[in-house]
């Protein structure tokens, strides 16, 4: 039978009668068929991913092969590469990783396609091997269930089946028996036999091409429909599981009213309260964990007198506390964007721990998320009277899925990786000496109070500023201690005090402003903050690892 580009022709490299690994396919032909063969591989890969997407949508989206391999990759990534990714791609790092994985799968699938004409078994092993690898990755996730292997196994089978069917339309099912010698030398169809219709038969080349196109289109449609249906189902489930329509109880202890002028409302200046949609997001989750609040449970375990298990309703039934708290990521570079201030609503975490009965010797709260991430928080930071929360609300609504719905921890004064577990499902009292957490296992500090920082938001770096009086403005934070002063200097001149917006408490950032008489030319602006203990930010630049960056933010502008 014919291949996509016509019937195979005999050649000097493959004289009739000489056996190749797969009879009926020779080298030159393999070369000629390469584009079609690679396309078969790509289509088979698409079919595999589509089928897997559908299967994962019925189980858990995190169990999909790309998500599982990506998540395993994130956990295995060495620190330098992770830091490079965050520096280079910022919050797009997850997208970049998924795109890279997709490209990798496409390359391997194309390779399988290319192998298929001559080494069909190897080709099948390659394409289903990808699926098996993903199944292992899915099973190795910290929160894995045995069924999580299923989407990847479905992918392996779908990929193999699709490749087998497609391959036949390219190389022709001329196996297992070789054609009679000479048969493939026919460049024109053989004369119609008695059983052939009397109308002129289409050329074998055209028939083959049509068979290939039909099989290709069918595979593509299968991939698109299964993938699309999977996506749609996942989206529908996500919407149903989100708290978008939840109405939370009013706080028993509302946040104090914001002082008038806490927000200086200068164009370009970060607003005092960061809208949830603009709040920075940092986590290891490639696929946002979706935890329906009706199914959610929080267990308080470990070194406690009375283990506790709470439902979402039981959390809502507790007296809720509302507080404005600025959250900061340890990975934030000097002048960086990973800080945000929100109005959080939640249960008093210290009261919850006291109810469970903290046993002597416990010094760490090891919290765990639905996706198996862990976080170690010093117990004394939660029990010392600060507003540590088991938060269920953010800025007047339920937590957005990206920020930890249905519940997360918020502990003022500590970087997020040691305090702010999203999608939290377990709080275990333990000892730092006995158990480590996700990031401390990777060398980051056990104890990580937030360092004093300040940032210039206005003007932007390299901006062209009109000469004359202009506002220099930004934010500064020193959670727990509070910001006492911010100073700015121009071109290493004298430090000049900025005007601070009124304080909303020690746990929130403060906006500041300085009016500057800008003169033509290039100028460097530099900022430093002093906390209420009298400590001023050091000029010594250190990178985020292992317990947060230091140094002063500065930028250059051109005054025209
Ligand atoms: N489950 C889970 N919670 C997590 C993380 C994570 O990777 N997984 N990252 C932490 C880090 S490093 C920070 S800075 C904060 C960020 O919270 P946000 O994304 O709501 O801003 O979440 C913390 N909570
Ligand atoms: Mo972080």
What can you see in these coordinates?
The chain is an alpha+beta fold and 560 residues long. It is built from ten helices and 19 strands. Strand 5 (364-369) and strand 6 form a beta hairpin. The chain is globular. The protein is 32% helix and 20% strand. The termini are far apart. Strands 2-1-10-5-6 form a five-stranded mixed sheet. It has three domains: 27-174 and 206-237, no CATH class; 276-442, Oxidoreductase, molybdopterin-binding domain (Sulfite Oxidase, Chain A, domain 2); 453-559, Immunoglobulin-like, CATH 2.60.40.650. The ligand Nc1nc2c(c(=O)[nH]1)N[C@H]1C(S)=C(S)[C@@H](COP(=O)(O)O)O[C@H]1N2 binds at residues 279-285, 327, 329, 369, 373, 403, 416-417, 420-423.
- Strand residues, percent: 15-25%
Q: Which ions and ligands are bound to the chains?
A: the ligand Nc1nc2c(c(=O)[nH]1)N[C@H]1C(S)=C(S)[C@@H](COP(=O)(O)O)O[C@H]1N2, molybdenum atom
| Number of DSSP helical runs | 10
| Count of DSSP strands | 19
The H-and-E topology, N to C, reads as HHHHHHHEEHEEHEEHEEEEEEEEEEEEE
Tell me the span between the first and last alpha carbons: 76 Å
Sketch the major β-sheet.
Answer: 5 strands, mixed
What's the overall average pLDDT, rounded? Answer: 90
CA gyration radius, whole angstroms = 31 Å
Q: How is the quaternary structure best described?
A: single chain
Q: How many domain units?
A: 3
Strand order of the largest sheet: 2-1-10-5-6
């Amino acid at each position: 039978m014919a291949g996509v580009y016509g019937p195979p022709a005999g050649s000097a490299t493959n004289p009739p009668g000489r056996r190749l690994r797969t009879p009926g396919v020779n080298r030159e032909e393999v070369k000629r068929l390469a584009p079609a063969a690679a396309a078969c591989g790509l289509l088979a890969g698409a079919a595999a991913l589509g089928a897997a997407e559908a299967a994962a949508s019925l189980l858990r989206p995190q169990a999909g092969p790309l998500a599982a391999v990506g998540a395993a990759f994130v956990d295995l990534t060495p620190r330098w590469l992770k830091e490079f990714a965050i520096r280079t791609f910022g919050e797009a790092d997850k997208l970049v990783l998924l795109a890279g994985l997709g490209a990798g799968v496409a390359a391997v699938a194309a390779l399988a396609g290319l192998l298929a004409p001559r080494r069909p078994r190897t080709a099948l092993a390659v394409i289903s091997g990808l699926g098996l690898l993903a199944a292992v990755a899915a099973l190795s996730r910290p929160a894995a269930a045995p069924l999580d292997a299923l989407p990847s196994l479905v992918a392996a089978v779908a990929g193999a089946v699709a490749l087998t069917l497609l391959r036949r339309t390219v190389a022709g099912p001329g196996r297992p028996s070789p054609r009679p010698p000479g048969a493939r030398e026919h460049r024109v169809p053989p004369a119609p036999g008695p059983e052939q219709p009397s109308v002129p038969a289409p050329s074998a080349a055209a028939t083959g091409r049509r068979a290939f196109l039909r099989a290709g289109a069918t595979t593509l449609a299968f991939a698109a429909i299964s993938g699309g249906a999977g996506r749609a189902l996942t989206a529908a489930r996500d919407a149903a599981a989100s708290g978008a329509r939840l109405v939370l109880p009013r706080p028993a202890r509302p946040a104090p009213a914001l002082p008038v002028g806490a927000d200086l409302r200068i164009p370009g200046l970060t607003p005092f309260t960061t809208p949830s949609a603009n709040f920075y997001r940092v986590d290891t989750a490639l696929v946002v964990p979706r935890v329906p609040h009706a199914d959610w449970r929080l267990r308080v375990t470990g070194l406690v007198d009375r283990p506790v298990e709470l439902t979402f309703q039981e959390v809502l039934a507790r007296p809720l506390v509302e507080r404005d708290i600025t959250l900061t990521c340890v990975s934030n570079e000097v002048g960086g964007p990973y800080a945000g201030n929100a109005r959080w609503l939640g249960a008093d975490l210290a009261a919850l721990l006291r109810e469970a009965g903290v046993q002597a010797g416990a010094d760490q709260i090891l919290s765990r998320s639905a996706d198996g991430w862990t976080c170690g928080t010093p117990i004394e930071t939660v029990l010392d009277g600060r507003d540590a929360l088991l938060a269920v609300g953010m800025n007047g609504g339920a937590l957005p899925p990206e920020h930890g719905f249905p519940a997360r921890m918020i502990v003022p004064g500590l970087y997020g990786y040691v305090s702010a577990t999203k999608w939290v499902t377990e709080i275990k009292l333990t000892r730092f000496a006995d158990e480590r957490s996700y990031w401390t296992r990777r060398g980051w500090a056990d104890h990580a109070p937030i360092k004093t920082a300040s940032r210039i938001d206005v003007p932007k770096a390299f901006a062209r500023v009109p000469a004359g009086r202009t506002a220099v403005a930004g934010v500064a934070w020193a959670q727990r201690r509070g910001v006492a002063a911010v100073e700015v200097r121009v071109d290493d001149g004298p430090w000049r005090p900025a005007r601070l917006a009124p304080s909303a408490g020690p746990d929130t950032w403060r906006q500041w402003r300085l009016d500057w008489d800008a003169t033509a030319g290039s100028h460097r602006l530099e900022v430093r903050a002093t906390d209420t203990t009298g400590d001023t930010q050091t000029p010594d630049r250190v990178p985020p690892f292992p317990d947060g960056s230091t140094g002063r933010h500065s930028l250059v502008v051109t005054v025209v």
